[in-house]
């Protein structure tokens, strides 16, 4: 949705975690932190689903590409 009617390409992806739980599931919650003319950046909080304890943070950067006109 952020790139429509164009496309996106991944520029960078990083993840930092602490000690991960031995059991259970992880949840993620993404939020857009910056959108410019050529890039968009998201942060994703990672948490243990059963306890809600935070376990990590991921940063994703995408290049915004224009739609091709044929």
Structure report:
The chain has 70 residues and is mainly β. Helices cover 0% and strands 61% of the residues. It is built from no helices and four strands. It has strands spanning 7-17, 26-35, 39-48, 54-65. It has a four-stranded antiparallel beta sheet with strand order 1-4-3-2, with no helix packed on it. Strand 2 and strand 3 (39-48) form a beta hairpin. It is elongated, with a radius of gyration of 15 Å. It starts with 6 loop residues before the first strand and ends in a 5-residue tail after the last strand.
Major sheet attributes: 4 strands, antiparallel
Secondary-structure content class: mainly beta
Question: Total number of helical segments?
Answer: 0
Strand content: over 45%
Tell me the Rg in angstroms. Answer: 15 Å
Q: Secondary-structure element sequence?
A: EEEE
The residue-averaged pLDDT reads 92
Measured as a percent range, the helix fraction is: under 10%
Overall spatial form = elongated
How far apart are the first and last residues' alpha carbons, in Å?
22 Å
* Spatial arrangement of strands, main beta sheet: 1-4-3-2
Compute the number of strand runs: 4
Unreliable spans: none
What descriptive keywords fit this protein?
single chain, 70 residues, mainly beta, 4-stranded antiparallel beta sheet, 4 strands, elongated
Quick recap:
0% of the residues lie in helices and 61% in strands. It is an all-beta fold and 70 residues long.
Secondary-structure map with pairings?
Layout: E1 7-17, E2 26-35, E3 39-48, E4 54-65
């Amino acid at each position: 949705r952020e790139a429509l009617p164009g496309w996106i390409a991944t520029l960078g992806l990083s993840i930092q975690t602490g000690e991960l739980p031995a059991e259970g599931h992880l949840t993620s919650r993404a939020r857009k932190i910056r959108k410019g003319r050529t890039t968009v950046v998201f942060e994703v909080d990672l948490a243990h689903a059963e306890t809600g304890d935070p376990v990590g943070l991921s940063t994703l950067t995408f290049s915004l590409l224009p739609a091709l006109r044929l």
